User: Fold this.
Amino acid sequence: MNSKHKLGAARGRAKSVATTTTTTRTKAIALAAACLFALGLSAAHADQEVSVGRVDVQLPGEGWRVVSIDDRGNRLVGPGLDYRQTAESKVMVHLGEDKVLNALVVVRANVSGRGRSSGVRYPGAKCVGPSEMFSEGDPTTPAPTSFRCLQVTAEHDLASSPALDDATKAAIAKEGWVLPPSVFFATASQYANTAAFAHVVAVVRPLAPMGAPGTGDSETALPPGVSASSVQWARQLQEAVTDSVYSFGGDLEVPPLKYAEAVAQATETPAPASEPAPEAAEKPAE
Assistant:
């Protein structure tokens, strides 16, 4: 991964846009559902690296599929500023050998910006969510010049979600894909005073414990159902998103994905049976 060159002395304080009990989780599920439907119609094989706007997404492992989706850009506002920014969105999906959805990643990033210290403001930005969602961000301030936010949901059943309409389910069935019994959502975003931004939504199967957590969280400190491994992985994703926005190259490295089920199966695989000891030769009768 290329070294990052930070623009400016500070990244600004963390804020975010997701707010109510229904908006963050429901919109994320709806977006994933729409993306799955689009993939069912026009999926293509992706390489290890995918370009999205000014961002180069580096995916863990191989076998990802990618498709572009419509993006109308952002309206940028500030003192004496009202500008339509061009953005790009792409969806990346990874399937297991059994065609079970392992991960779906939606990346949105700017193509055009306004330059450093452009006077861009983000009115109404805040990083809050329902009590059952993990949200990490600084206190809200009026019209911040930059903001960052991470949110993680509990693991839940995607198949039973009302956001999966009949058309989406039909597309999934046509492709022969299988929805996992449980997934979690992670949303990581960074908006800079330069008008550069990256917004990532990840829908991921439960992950295995990641060893030394280094997150300062325990299971009891998190909302019910939100796992420490999900938060730890999502924090790594957030760091990659922030580094990408403040770098010249725009590299965004998605953290490695080690699924709990795969790790459990590997540990449960029985060791090869040892060869039986040779039988002692019979002593000839005297």
Summary: The CA atoms of residues 126 and 252 lie 23 Å apart. Helices lie at 23-42, 166-175, 228-245, 260-268. The chain has one domain: 23-265.
